[in-house]
Hints:
CATH architecture: 3-Layer(aba) Sandwich
Strand content: 15-25%
CATH superfamily: NAD(P)-binding Rossmann-like Domain
Number of domains: 1
Number of strands: 7
Order of helices and strands: EHEEHEHEHEHHEHH
Strand order of the largest sheet: 3-2-1-4-5-6-7
Helix content: 25-40%
Number of helices: 8
Radius of gyration: 18 Å
CATH class: Alpha Beta
CATH topology: Rossmann fold
Amino acid sequence: MATVPSSTSAASAAPAARFDRLLLTGAAGALGQVLRPRLKRLCRVLRVSDIAAMAAAGDGEEVVVAPLQDGAAVHALVEGVEAIVHLGGVSVEGPFEPILQANIVGAWNLYEAARKHGTKRVVFASSNHVTGFYRQDEVISPRDPMRPDGHYGLSKAFGENLSRFYFDRYGIETVCLRIGSSFPEPKDRRMLATWLSYDDLERLVVAGLSAPVVGHSVVYGLSDNATTWWDNTLAAHIGYRPKDSSEPFRAAAEARQPALDTSDPAVLFQGGGFVTKGPYE
């Protein structure tokens, strides 16, 4: 299990929204553990949820076990919440049924609960795998058509469309974050383009919560990398300004992969290894 970072970070001076109660789903996951201590400063009470084991509630926290596919549990989970950071669900490529239940049924349950309880802002963890079948020699923006690279990418494409519907019909604002690769450092040459530092992840989520008006926004989650496949100009209106870069890690990443096989789909396409996973029967 990853070590939970300190609540003090290089991004802690970023403008902060103030909420009475903020919900973080997926709190037991890798990025949930990163964000949990960092989001506490934004609210009086941070409610955290997952189905996996979580740390006990600290001061100003509520810990709730709630399967996303359980509509009644999610309805209770969202009660009294002013805003939601939704990281919950299956976070890797795999068979469709678990992804269907957690990511598709679960997302619908979450937005229905938000509608019924009057929650008006969601920061939704989408994924770069929504556009994973674009090539690595292309630069795209959120205005380009979706090209999911697997079941996981399909589920996130559904989530983006679902959140669009709930904004158009019910006025629930959402910032969809097409997160690249958020780790302490890039693991390989692909991540030199997709890397999102933990501090920039915090800056991005705080921006999504803090911007006065976001409507329905789709932005890429990446740091200020020298190599990039994503035009993130459309993130300017939420005030996201990345401060980190993958460049200091370039030499190490290139040493680990001195040569690339350009006939390998994982090298050709932005989704990397996800584009070749499956079928599962």
